[in-house]
Amino acid sequence: MTAEIESNFLADIGRRVRALRADQDLTLEQLARLTGISAPALSLIETGKRDARLTTLAKIAAALRVPIRALLEDQTNDASTGGDAPAEGYDLGDYL
């Protein structure tokens, strides 16, 4: 994963966390209490500046009462992508 792709991925997750938190009218401090994660750490996750562990994302998802995939996947594009369409093959030529 390139640095730009990784940065965009983290920013996308952060936007989803923030949107879900806002939808439930929770402040960072309230989500921090529910998750046991500090408000500054949550802020860094929401801004895409911190790469959260899977266990951290699981705590956030549980506190927000959503499946963890709601934080990881863009739910708005599911209908347009065809859902579980097979992925293209890999080009491993650069790695051999």
UniProtKB/TrEMBL annotation:
Q: Which GO terms describe its molecular function?
A: DNA binding; DNA-binding transcription factor activity
Q: Domain HTH cro/C1-type, which positions?
A: 17-71
Query: What is the scientific name of the source organism?
Result: Rhodovulum marinum
Taxonomically, the superkingdom here is Bacteria
Q: What is this protein called?
A: DNA-binding XRE family transcriptional regulator
Q: Which InterPro entries match?
A: Cro/C1-type_HTH, Lambda_DNA-bd_dom_sf, TransReg_Diox_bact_type
PANTHER family in the cross-refs: HTH-TYPE TRANSCRIPTIONAL REGULATOR, METHYLPHOSPHONATE SYNTHASE
Keyword annotations from UniProtKB, A to Z: DNA-binding
> Is the keyword DNA-binding in the record?
yes
Q: Span of the secretion signal?
A: none
The record's section on Pfam families has: HTH_3 (PF01381)
The record's annotation in SUPFAM superfamilies points to: lambda repressor-like DNA-binding domains
Annotated region (Disordered), positions in chain: 75-96
What is one cellular component GO term in this UniProt entry? cytosol
